[in-house]
Specification:
6 strands; 35% helix; globular; four-stranded mixed β-sheet; 9 helices
């Protein structure tokens, strides 16, 4: 089907599913721009009316889009609607100045809201769509288990594994130096009833992760250059460090052994604390790292690891590559496709 027809099908499905949940859109804006998916929304007072802006990946109206890609986009629709239904952004927004913490919140919140969507019964095939979506996001590769910058991605994957999804790649969490606190956080988040609980869990988790984080490697000391004294150079090596010394600290043993599983505390399901307003939280807390000591900068991989930062929210970079339009090269986002309007001209 043409890209314009494909996009219209995605938008129509989104509106139909949202209405089936007894919510309605007051104002709905849809943009096809970039590679990932996001939502900005506001629940109007105590009503079930929502103003929302959805942004989905770039698709050219005039290119043929395979029907087999449709389930991936509908999975993204359900995921973003899950934020509108079950995410309260107010406790999340309190930490927007710390991108590392925001990523951890996002990594724990995404599996929780998908679990809520499945449990709601609004979309009968939600489980299969979410399962396919996370496998698509992984793209056949995982991350280094000790890569600090991608611990949030591990949380997003392993939290979904706890939801029962069959994920193609095995877990790497058992090999991580951060295994113990991450397991505890995942179990607690799996039972969390609200976004505010997830935020509390994430704050505690980041503090523990920073405690386990190895110190940064120090560069070997270089001999001091000789300085002239009344025209006579000093003998090299009289002062300064020994260039042959190795001051790099050892990484140390893992925090726990591979079979150190954490006991489950039970699984109590309950009502969400209520919907909020704002963004779904893609880790957009700002350009900077956040408070000192709160994690690796988000624009580069963590120390000693070559893996780039992995997207937590659904990303269709590879899927949409053959179907994009060059309009994305401009600064402004591309608007959604709209119904044709017929104009009549009177020539006189």
């Amino acid at each position: 089907m043409l890209g314009s027809e494909f996009k219209r099908g995605v938008v129509t499905t989104l509106e139909r599913v949202f209405k089936a949940s007894s919510y309605t859109f007051n104002e709905l804006e849809f943009q096809w721009y970039g590679t990932g998916a996001s939502i900005k929304f506001e629940v109007l007072g105590n009503t079930r009316m929502v103003d929302a802006l959805f942004r989905f990946p770039n698709v050219d109206d005039n290119k043929e889009m395979p029907r087999k890609e449709l389930p991936k986009f509908i999975g993204m629709v359900l995921h973003e609607l899950g934020h509108a239904w079950f995410t309260d952004n107010r406790p999340w927004d309190a930490h927007r100045d710390n991108p590392t913490l925001c990523r951890i919140i996002n990594g724990l919140e995404d599996p929780r809201i998908e679990k809520k969507v499945i449990g709601s019964g609004i979309a009968g095939n939600a489980f299969a769509l979410f399962e396919g979506l996370i496998n698509e996001m992984m793209g056949g590769t995982y991350v280094d288990p000790d890569d600090f910058g991608n611990l949030a991605f591990q949380l997003a994957v392993e939290g979904r594994r706890m939801n029962g999804y069959k994920i193609a790649l095995p877990s790497v969490l058992g090999k991580s130096r951060y295994k113990e606190p991450m397991q505890i956080a995942l179990r607690r988040a799996h039972k969390a009833k609200s976004t505010s609980e997830v935020v509390e869990i994430a704050v505690e988790l980041l503090a523990r992760l920073n405690e386990l984080k190895p110190p940064p490697a120090e560069a070997p000391k270089q001999p001091e250059q000789p300085t002239p004294d009344d025209g006579e150079p000093e003998s090299p090596g009289d002062e300064g460090g020994d260039a042959g010394d190795d001051d790099n600290p050892s990484k140390g043993d893992d925090a726990v052994d591979d079979d150190g599983d954490i006991a489950d505390e039970g699984d109590d399901e309950g009502d969400d604390e209520g919907e909020g307003e704002g963004e779904d939280g893609e880790g957009e807390g700002g350009e900077n790292e956040g408070d000192e000591g709160d994690g690796e900068p988000l624009d580069k991989p963590s120390r000693g690891v070559d893996d780039p930062l992995r997207e937590i929210e659904p990303d269709m970079t590879d899927v949409t590559a053959p179907y994009r339009t060059n309009v994305d090269e401009s600064a402004e986002p591309r608007p959604t496709s709209v119904k044709s309007t017929v104009f009549k001209f009177h020539w006189e």
